[in-house]
Fold:
Amino acid sequence: MTGVKQTFWRGYHRDIFGIIWQAKTELFKRAQVKILRRLGHTARKAPVLTSFLVITLLASLPYLSGLVSPAQASPTPTFTFAASGDFGSLTSTTGANNLARLSSSGIGFFLGLGSLSYNSSLTGDVWCSQFKAKYSNIEIIPGDHDTGGHNSTTFGETHSYEGYVSNCPLTLGVPITCGPVAGACYGKEYYLDYPATNPLARFIFASPKIYNITGVCTQALDPYWPGCSSQTKNLPCTDQYGCWPYAKADIHYNWVSAAIDNARSLGIKWTIVATHKDCISASDATCSMGSDFFNMLLSKKVDLIIQAHDNAYERSKQLALNGGSCPNISTDGNGYVVYNSGCIVDSGLGNYTRGLGSVVVVQGAWVNDLYGVNASATSPANVAEAPFFAKLMGKNTPGNGLGFTKYTISASRIDVQTSFSGNFSDSFSISNGSGPIPLSPWPALVANLAPVKRNSSSHGNVQLSLPRGYTGPSGRTPGRARDRADASTIATRWTALHGPRLQTSGST
Structure:
């Protein structure tokens, strides 16, 4: 080779590869200008290679477009929603402030997770009109206070959930799929995929152990009316009392299980299950949703389980079942969950990896009646459950506040941020984890990403693939010794940028 051609060949991999990788941290146009300047300089001295390098650049554009900074790349489709439960009065100072913050938040829609009104004289039509006067896009599921399932003289509830269903109707403009419910299913048991086109998430709304959800409890049925409830007369959770237990393999349990499987088969990115009642609690609740149902959700590794019922904020660690240390979540004789560290797959420092397990978010901290958490929980059994959780807020938490939790959904991640009136704040994400090494589609120079086979040399050799029939500037195949030297340089730079994951083969 002449000196000019030798200089070019030796510098080709280093300079062009270095500039291409520089596009990761610089604007694409700046990197492109550098490449074109080098092409111009080379074109005067090695015209034979000019066309080859231009083709290389053009073939690289799809790859480079993936490295453009977020400010320049096409926006990733996202949507937002918020959720809370246990509301009480919307006209109180607390309720009005929370609604004002929600209405100015720009959040796409809101999930009301039950226990909407705490006042037996404030029916669903009035409550919904008050809420929708400030924020209209609310979807609902029922809680204990909404269906007339308790003695209202002491519990504070309304007696007709239909008033809420009729006056807080579905507003998202997407079809819903009903569970095994007689009549209209919205607000009771249904799922929807959102957005309507290319949905990112499936929301499954279930109502385990909510008495009188179907409105069947009447004074004729219950001589102690009002009070069609296990809490007042230990009535069984059966259709007779408008209650669905979601016991293992019953029709409601099986419907939710199939809905999760169907979402996965359709390639929907995220599966979110919403219920009012809880299972794990570091505040007040027993596993009132039923351990069979909760274990099924964990076994399916649904991404998020969002709930209320406890007047507190509780964000769990990431939980999953396994055949060894955590075959299931079990309860004691009083219905409280027995803590098992073997069920924790991620301690919840703020970033969970999708697919490893489920994250539970209990958000019942809207009403101005917070419960204690952790050491101030209602029962010693709740205190013992606290290690299931990564973040807790209750009446004993400094800076506590009231409000809702915001979720931002994209194809690759869920970002969650609380919005409370006090100084307490929590945020976390669920994402795909560490991305794979980006692979260039170049026909000119490709690292062979075969399984690792290291040899005794100091760096190993990287197999380079040049276009079929290509020869060097002198008309002969480039020398292997020089190729190995340049390949080693590439491997070193790749490792510095991405870690030691460039696989090598034994020879070139």
Observations:
- The mean pLDDT is 77.
- The chain is about 30% helix and 15% strand.
- The first helix runs from residue 3 to 22.
- The radius of gyration is 30 Å.
